[in-house]
């Protein structure tokens, strides 16, 4: 009896440690955060995003992603998308802005953290039976050479038995086109017995995205156009000569030009001129 009671206590302890089944929310919000402690979807009441028309200098990526998402929201075929390239050029802002444009259609946005990729299968199981369409979004996605989590994502995209649910589309942003540092890919090629197979295993993940949208560093004219667009949208009145001189000094001291740097300059300018954002 003593041994039986001990086994029963162990079984009860294991049940307490095991994550319980996630409970679907009431779907009243338009965006959610996926949390794994315990599994649940946390509603986001206010999404931090910039209106789509203020994202300048990325016209092709904007139009392509918007059209792809519109088709998905209407129940038509659409592709998973990888937004890759220079930091601060609006990759994550574009995903959130596109969702904002289509929010009235009932499209939901669910953010999945890079650290929780291993739980993506459980999340898809929760979304599969929901009466809505979802853009599953992972920001700053990348993997190291010994990171096995990418295998979970490969199955989520299109490699598993069940496949991706028809009501879920996956968008990811990354600074890397192949989601791995170039030096790690080269190391795999140089040290493997069969270099081609070693590299193929790592880069095949990015091939599962039907859309590759590249973002590149902007030139000075595009940088200034972004700031002018913000000024017009928020009613900041400043002389063109002053705007140009201060903006050039700002990005020179930062050592880079990007959409993020343009927004940071505009926030400083709006604050100095007493205009709320």
Textual characterization of the structure:
With 277 residues, this protein is α/β, with parallel strands linked by helices. The chain folds into 2 domains: 31-215, 3-Layer(aba) Sandwich (Rossmann fold), CATH 3.40.50.300; 220-273. It is 47% helix and 13% strand. The chain has 10 helices and 7 strands. It has helices spanning 2-17, 59-73, 91-102, 120-128, 149-159, 182-191, 195-207, 220-234, 240-254, 259-273; strands at residues 31-36, 39-43, 81-85, 108-111, 134-138, 168-174, 211-215. The protein has a 7-stranded mixed β-sheet, with helices on both faces. β5, α5 and β6 form a beta-alpha-beta unit. α8 packs across α9. The protein is elongated, with a radius of gyration of 23 Å. It starts with a helix and ends with a helix. The model has no long low-confidence stretch (mean pLDDT 84).
Which consecutive residue ranges, at least 5 long each, have pLDDT under 50?
A: none
Approximate helicity band: 40-55%
Element order: H for helix, E for strand: HEEHEHEHEHEHHEHHH
- Text of the CATH class of the largest domain: Alpha Beta
Find the CATH superfamily of the largest domain.
P-loop containing nucleotide triphosphate hydrolases
User: How does the major sheet shape up?
Assistant: 7 strands, mixed
Question: From the structure provided, what is the oligomeric state, counting identical versus distinct chains?
Answer: single chain
Number of helices: 10
Assign the CATH topology of the largest domain: Rossmann fold
Strands, total number: 7
Radius of gyration, whole Å: 23 Å
Report the portion of residues in β strands.
5-15%
Mean pLDDT: 84
What general form does the structure show? Answer: elongated
Total individual domains: 2
Strand order of the largest sheet: 2-1-4-5-6-3-7
CATH architecture descriptor name of the largest domain: 3-Layer(aba) Sandwich
For the termini, the CA-CA separation is 70 Å
> Which structural class do you get from the secondary structure elements?
alpha/beta
């Amino acid at each position: 009896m003593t041994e039986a009671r001990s086994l029963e206590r162990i079984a009860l302890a294991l049940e307490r440690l095991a994550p319980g089944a996630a409970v679907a929310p009431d779907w009243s919000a338009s965006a959610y955060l996926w949390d794994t402690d315990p599994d649940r979807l946390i509603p986001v009441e206010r999404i931090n995003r910039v209106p789509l028309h203020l994202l300048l200098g990325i016209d092709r990526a904007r139009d392509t992603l918007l059209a792809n998402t519109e088709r998905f929201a209407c129940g038509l075929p659409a592709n998973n998308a990888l937004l890759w390239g220079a930091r601060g050029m609006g990759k994550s802002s574009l995903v959130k802005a596109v969702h904002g444009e289509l929010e009235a259609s009932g499209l939901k946005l669910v953010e999945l953290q890079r650290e929780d990729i291993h739980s993506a299968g459980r999340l898809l199981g929760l979304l599969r039976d929901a009466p809505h369409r979802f853009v599953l979004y992972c920001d700053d996605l990348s993997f190291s050479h010994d990171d096995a989590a990418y295998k979970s994502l490969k199955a989520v995209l299109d490699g598993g038995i069940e496949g991706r649910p028809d009501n879920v589309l996956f968008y990811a942003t990354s600074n890397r086109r192949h989601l791995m540092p170039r030096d790690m890919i080269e190391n795999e090629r140089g040290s493997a017995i069969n270099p081609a197979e070693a590299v193929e295993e790592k880069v095949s993940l990015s091939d599962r995205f039907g859309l590759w949208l590249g973002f590149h560093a902007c030139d000075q004219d595009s940088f200034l156009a972004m700031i002018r667009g913000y000024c017009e949208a928020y009613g900041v009145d400043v002389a063109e000569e002053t705007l140009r001189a201060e903006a050039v000094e700002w990005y020179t001291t930062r050592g880079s030009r990007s959409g993020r740097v343009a927004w940071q300059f505009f926030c400083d300018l709006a604050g100095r001129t007493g205009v709320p954002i």
